[in-house]
Design goal:
Largest sheet: 2 strands, antiparallel
Number of strands: 2
Number of helices: 5
Strand content: under 5%
Distance between the termini: 62 Å
Shape: elongated
Length: 182
């Protein structure tokens, strides 16, 4: 099987269900951004500091594939059975954040991204997650998007922020706080 089909050479692609849309379509931008996020989660999973969290990060990647499948489907034409998110997927992220926060110092100021290259990857992933969430909310204004997709992306961005703090703590890296000029 060849990986290239040449069917997209004119700037169109197919959604699950067969509908052809421009590659610039908001739906394509949404699942492309989720794919970008998934790549950053893979980069986080590969960081030595995240060895104890590799299983969870892989599960998050699986959920992002679920979201991508949902977003890649034409909600009006696809007859294909698409995997769904479950409320437990969101609850898992909340439990993990709560567990990390138990051992982290209380946050009293805004944290600037950085402090260690591995921590910076978490901040980049968080920003890409927020962009994916914004795009999906925009898509939801005109087309069906499963409610849990937005909830999951919102919670995942929170998780990635807490993860960045946990990684900084585990690495002994300084959390640089924002000190606004007044």
């Amino acid at each position: 099987m060849k990986i290239y089909t040449k069917t997209g050479d004119q700037g169109l692609t197919s959604l699950i269900g067969g509908t052809r849309v421009p590659k610039s379509d908001l739906r394509i931008d949404c699942y492309g951004t989720v794919d970008e996020l998934n790549s950053y989660i893979g980069l986080l999973r590969d960081q030595d500091v995240n060895a104890p969290r590799r299983g969870l990060l892989k599960e998050i990647q699986d959920r992002l594939f679920t979201i991508g499948s949902s977003l890649a489907s034409d909600p009006e034409k696809s007859k294909m059975k698409i995997p769904d998110l479950h409320a437990e997927d969101v609850t898992l992220l909340e439990r993990e954040m709560d567990a990390m926060n138990e051992h982290l110092p209380e946050l009293r100021m805004f944290v600037l991204p950085g402090g260690h290259p591995s921590v910076s990857f978490a901040h980049v992933a968080r920003c890409v997650c927020r962009r994916a969430e914004r795009l999906v909310i925009g898509l939801r204004e005109d087309s069906f998007v499963a409610e849990l997709v937005v909830v999951y992306l919102n919670r995942l961005s929170d998780y990635l922020f807490v993860l960045s703090r946990q990684m900084a703590h585990d690495l002994g890296a300084e959390e640089v706080t924002w000190k606004p000029r007044l």
